[in-house]
Fold Cell shape-determining protein MreC.
Amino acid sequence: MKPLFAKGPSLGVRLLVLTVLSVALMVVDARFTLLKPVRSQMSLVLMESYWITDLPQRLWQGVASQFGSRTELVAENEKLKTENLLLQGRMQKLAALTEQNVRLRELLNSSALVNEKVEVAELIGMDPNPFTHRILINKGERDGVVLGQPVLDARGLMGQVVELMPYTSRVLLLTDTTHSIPVQVNRNGLRAIASGTGNPERLELRHVADTADIKEGDLLVSSGLGQRFPAGYPVATVKEVIHDSGQPFAIVRAVPTAALNRSRYLLLVFSDNRTPEERANDAAVAQEAQDRQGGESVTPVTPVAPAPAPAAPATVPKPQAATPATSAPATTPSTAPATPAAAPARPATHAPASQPARPAARPPASTPAASPAPRGAREE
């Protein structure tokens, strides 16, 4: 009797054949490029299967996002509104502090700049040497860049220009082992020196006393003592402070605030490079010039007063009724108030006006001279 189903090879034989075939295909695919067109065609077929198998998960994620997105958006909107309100309040306070700083500098007659001039530059290259932290920017000597010019990004100081070329410049970053910058703790004004460690994410503060008031989270800003970096710009944030009772100095590590390995657009700061002595001399010269201008503005008022003085004699001849004896005393008081109205120089006008009036008053004195005649008649 013939069996209903033909008996084929055993499972062991099939497994062995498939194993040999698989190994042969892997060797051919690794050694030769004959199976690349087959793989590319198979990928088109398998892509549909991948999409079908991943469809349930994508549908579930879409439904969950539709129900959860509204709540998340409302919460995020409220959070952004709160942050916006806080930032607006801080901005108003910052504007008030800036105006107050300007007024105080004007009172002190300080020549330091409150807002430095800046220019945008772009990073175009990096030094391939892993032991130096230098970058190349697209601004050079033709653009007014100078050696030692500070460079910063949107978060804080990055470094300074150390090499000039006509159209490009090389910037030494803060984290380079050969770079140091004077800083101070923004909380209490403690001064220190921040040096590079060769790690783009770390700075170290040198020679900080073990008893110094510095702690984790303190903001370090530039102090401006080196006359190279402008004061007040953020440099780093203290990350770790290690106190050792057997060492005179504490180990202070900080993280730069600037994105040294991520920023692409930078700012070149054009600050005042004068020394303190030059600033003091310029301020003294400006003060002297201001005082001189103030003195000259007062002196021109005095020569204007004598100008109408020649008009005073014109008022003197007006009282021509000097013939009667009784009119003489009347003219003297009348001319006295008239002269101040005509000319502000009071002492200069009274003296000449009163002297010619006296001879006119003397002739009436001759009339009383005839008075002895009646006396003689009485004696007779």
